[in-house]
């Protein structure tokens, strides 16, 4: 009998001890632990609700397991940092891609970067897109199957990868997978409206479905360096984060998320000024000159210090992604290093192969709110507090985004 994921019984083991977790416990993290299910062993690193409690009549089973499995064996599993060989070989997880995006990160699972340290347990399997003929083009030699129905893809695949360029569809596309408890990735900018973003996270928590939405910059090797700098030379007074592309909904998330990963949250308000760019063809294809845009983020005071002022800056002039941090004792400019694509792959492999959530759900929601508040400021001509946003507040969208992605693929 196949047991739905959200109905399976779990025994959590960490630090060499068993932990029977209350079914009524909510929003509890089990970091670095292991969940032993009826099917195989996999690591838990989730910010979702606790798995179901083992029923009282299974206590004898638990004692039998603990008494016969051997503490040394469990400790060895935990210390290794990877599932045991029989668990790894039991099943290759199928990745299903919903919609053509700008990066095609899932393709990397057929040929992982050389620096990959963990076993890759997932492989590309299925694709779907609602533009005629596009899914067949996406399939190529990388994927095994073209789906006509996104819900059927979600049912048949184990890991769901959403890159559809129309982010107004994020909730609709993610819901079947989340309700099945499956790891789900949604490419930035996560969702259109505040209501949709909150509902996606609610579903992920309710059904214990690991969820990820991020910029690759959030996983750069310089992030810990920035955090160490702040600890030594802070507190932070201000920062300027820059990204060399002027697209509002695609590239503001890069700099906002980059700064959030490095410096933390607590954003109070956003103020927009500058060029409003939504059609990448204007400057990438037609060569039109476009200006820069700025989202000025004001933070809530930390520990009695003045509010941090963050200048999230996107433009089409030369320069690398960077964050220039003004600490109380020193100023230092940190330039993006490393391989962006590889960093993203490592995080996705953690999500799909090991159900590890790389960034807190609260961070995903606040980053999204900051972007929506920036758009609201653009329309109102004044700073907008994140707490003032309602469910219908949303980011702008234009079909030019989708046309650009499709045109680049089909030629």
- Order of secondary-structure elements: EEEEHHHEEHEHEHEHEHEHEHEEEEHHEH
Write down the overall mean pLDDT. 82
Shape descriptor reads: globular
Task: Work out the helix count.
Answer: 13
Structural class: alpha/beta
Report on this model:
- This protein has 411 residues and is α/β, with parallel strands linked by helices.
- It has 3 domains: 5-87, no CATH class; 92-214, Rossmann fold (3-Layer(aba) Sandwich); 221-337 and 360-411, Dihydrodipicolinate Reductase, domain 2, CATH 3.30.360.
- It is built from 13 helices and 17 strands.
- The chain has helices at residues 59-69, 71-80, 85-88, 134-139, 150-156, 170-179, 194-206, 222-233, 248-263, 281-284, 340-354, 361-380, 399-410; strands at 11-14, 17-19, 33-36, 41-44, 93-98, 122-128, 145-146, 159-162, 184-186, 211-212, 236-243, 267-274, 293-299, 309-314, 322-327, 331-335, 384-385.
- It has a 7-stranded mixed sheet. A 6-stranded parallel sheet has the order 7-6-5-8-9-10.
- A hairpin with a 4-residue loop joins strand 3 and strand 4.
- It is globular.
- Mean pLDDT is 82; it is low at 1-89.
């Amino acid at each position: 009998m196949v047991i739905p994921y959200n109905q399976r019984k779990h025994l959590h083991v960490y630090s060499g001890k068993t932990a029977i977790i209350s079914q009524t416990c909510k929003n509890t993290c089990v970091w670095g632990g292991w969940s032993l299910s009826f099917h195989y062993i996999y690591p838990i690193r989730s910010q979702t609700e606790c798995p179901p409690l083992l029923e009282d009549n299974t206590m004898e089973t638990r004692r039998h397991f603990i008494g016969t499995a051997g503490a040394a064996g469990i400790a060895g599993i935990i210390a290794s940092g990877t599932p045991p060989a029989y668990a790894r070989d039991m099943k290759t997880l199928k990745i299903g891609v919903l919609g053509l995006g700008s990066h095609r990160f899932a393709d990397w699972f057929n040929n992982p970067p050389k620096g990959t340290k963990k076993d890759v347990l997932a492989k590309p399997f299925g694709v779907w897109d609602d533009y005629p003929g596009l899914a067949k083009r996406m399939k190529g030699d990388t994927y095994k199957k073209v789906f006509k129905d996104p819900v059927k893809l979600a049912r048949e695949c184990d890991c769901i990868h959403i890159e559809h360029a129309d982010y107004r569809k994020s909730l609709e596309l993610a819901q079947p997978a989340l309700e099945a408890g499956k790891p789900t990735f949604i490419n930035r900018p996560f969702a259109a409206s505040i209501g949709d973003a909150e509902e996606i996270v609610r579903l992920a928590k309710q059904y214990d479905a690991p969820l990820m939405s991020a910029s690759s910059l959030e996983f750069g090797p310089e992030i810990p360096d920035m955090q160490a700098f702040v600890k030594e030379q802070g507190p932070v007074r201000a920062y300027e984060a820059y990204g060399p592309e002027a697209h509002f909904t695609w590239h503001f998330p890069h700099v906002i998320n980059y700064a959030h990963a490095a410096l933390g949250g607590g954003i109070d308000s956003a103020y927009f000024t500058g060029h409003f760019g939504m059609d990448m063809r204007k400057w990438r294809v037609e060569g039109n000159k476009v200006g820069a845009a700025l989202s000025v983020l004001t933070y809530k005071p930390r520990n009695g210090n003045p509010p941090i002022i963050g200048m999230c800056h996107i433009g089409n002039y030369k320069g690398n992604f960077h964050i220039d941090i003004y600490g109380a004792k020193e100023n230092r400019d940190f330039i993006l290093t490393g391989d962006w694509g590889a960093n993203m792959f490592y995080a996705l492999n953690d999500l799909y192969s090991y159900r590890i959530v790389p960034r807190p759900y609260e961070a995903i929601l606040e980053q999204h709110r900051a972007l929506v508040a920036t758009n609201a400021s653009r329309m109102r001509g004044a700073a907008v507090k994140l707490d003032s946003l309602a469910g219908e507040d949303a980011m702008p969208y234009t079909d030019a985004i989708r046309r650009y992605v499709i045109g680049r693929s089909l030629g």
